[in-house]
Amino acid sequence: MQKTSQRSLQVLLALVVAAGLSACSVTPRRAAPVEDRALGSNGTRPAPPSGPASAASAPSDTKPLPGAENAGKPGYYTVKPGDTLIRIALDNGQNWRDLVKWNGLDKPNLIEVGQVLRVVAPGVDPTAVATRPITSGKVESRPLDSKPVAGAASAPVAAASTPAPAVAAAPAPRDTGGDDEPAWGWPVAGAVSAGFDDQRNKGLDFNGKAGEPVLAAADGRVMYAGSGLRGYGNMVIIKHNNNYLTAYAHNQTLLVKEDQAVRKGQKIAEMGSSDADQVMLHFEVRKQGKPIDPAKLLPAR
Q: Which pLDDT band holds residue 198 (cuts at 50, 70, 90)?
């Protein structure tokens, strides 16, 4: 009996030792691996993403935008989102056609954000010309009959509608290239409904009825006739000399065309409510691109 008990104990001890050795030979469990999210499902590292979102992190092999070497220099303007060629020209007191010529634009209907444009004539000292880009409040720029392109600003250059036949041609005014103060006149007969405010209203607003005549405020040459600036509707811009231009907005009919010479008091449009909630004329005077209060220039009634 004693021998049987000893043998059973030996067998039990042998089993315990064998079990311990077996446990030691099992491969120890490892911690779960940390997932490398930079690797794809096939274990390889995917190519870096493309598109605007990756532009900041991925080196760009694209060519610099036109005029980039002139960024920040006097007499040049860097295109921003929402800009149009007409807006840039208006804010710098220039004709958009001159900007096309000075910058050699093959496609004036498309300018790119970041592109740098000359806004002062070649050979003119930009430090002697006070061309200040103007923030236009809530007025937005957009091309006509087209959707905006990502990363680009479209520039309308054609009138939105065919102008009505012009009134009888007036004698050509004197050359508008000088710096003399124009002889100003009122653009409409109606009363002023809203005065000049440098932050909220860049000109004067006038009451009136649809179809009432809109008159050129001084001798000059039509620089633009169309509806390429949202917020202005059908608009005429007249350049009077090197310093001054005037803008007439919200018309129902335009009676002049670009590059047409006009005289002070000549009918250039008919009053309307295009891009406005009522019939009105919005009238601006800009000196070297900067809006100024027309009431300080117009004669007493």
A: confident
Distances in Å between the Cα of 194 and the Cα atoms of 19, 75, 205, 293 are 99, 33, 5, 12
**Helix, strand, or coil here: 132?**
coil
Q: What angle do CA 135, 73, 247 make, to 5 degrees?
A: 35
Q: Please report, for residues 90, 106, 224, the alpha-carbon distance to residue 97 in angstroms, rounded to integers and kept in the order given.
A: 11, 12, 9
Residue 162 within a domain: no
**How would residue 163 be classed by pLDDT, with cut points 50, 70 and 90?**
very low
Count of residues making up the chain = 301
Q: Which domain holds residue 210?
A: 192-296
Number of domains in the chain: 2
- Nearest alpha carbon to residue 238 among 253, 230, 252, 255: 255
Whole-angstrom distance, CA of residue 100 vs CA of residue 117? 9
Say whether pLDDT at 77 is over 60.
Answer: yes
The residue among 104, 132, 157 that closes a domain is 157
More confident residue, 264 or 180: 264
Report the b/e string of 236-254 with b at 16+ CB within 10 A: bbbbbbebbbbbbbbbbbb
Look at the block and give the residue holding tokens 């087209």.
Answer: 146
Decide if 259 is inside a domain: yes
Q: Parallel, antiparallel, or unpaired: how do β-strands 261-262 and 152-154 relate?
A: unpaired
Could you tell me which of 55, 108, 53, 50 has the C-alpha nearest to residue 83?
108
Q: State the pLDDT confidence band at 176, using cuts at 50, 70 and 90.
A: low
- Percent of the chain scored above 70 by pLDDT? 62
Measure the CA–CA gap between 243 and 145, rounded to whole angstroms. Answer: 33
Residue 127 counted as domain residue:
yes
